[in-house]
Write a structure and sequence with these properties.
The chain has three helices and five strands. By secondary structure, it is of the alpha/beta class. The two termini are 25 Å apart.
């Protein structure tokens, strides 16, 4: 990940960064962004764990809702076995 120049110019040593996510599943996007902030800017990071609304992994204490998201292979899915229709998300 690389920041555009306008963002690098804003992220100076006098600025703070707060990580906020709406939904976290693996946390990979936050880790990449945090690494970029640490390596490409002089900004200070306020929170090591992101504030988030829904932590689907269940490991972030700074989230409003924590709930494990179940993922199934089609041949092991209980909803598929029950004949429920699969809805495609676009």
């Amino acid at each position: 990940m690389t920041f555009r120049r306008c963002f690098r110019e804003m992220l100076t040593k006098n600025n703070w960064v707060i990580f906020v996510e709406d939904v976290v599943t693996t946390g990979e996007s936050v880790r990449k962004t945090k690494k970029a902030v640490k390596t490409q800017t002089e900004a200070k990071i306020l929170n090591e764990n992101p504030f988030c609304i829904w932590d689907r992994n269940g490991g972030n204490p700074q989230s409003i809702l924590q709930d494990k998201a179940n993922a199934y292979d089609p041949d092991e899915c209980p909803m598929c076995a029950a004949g429920e229709e699969i809805m495609e998300v676009k």
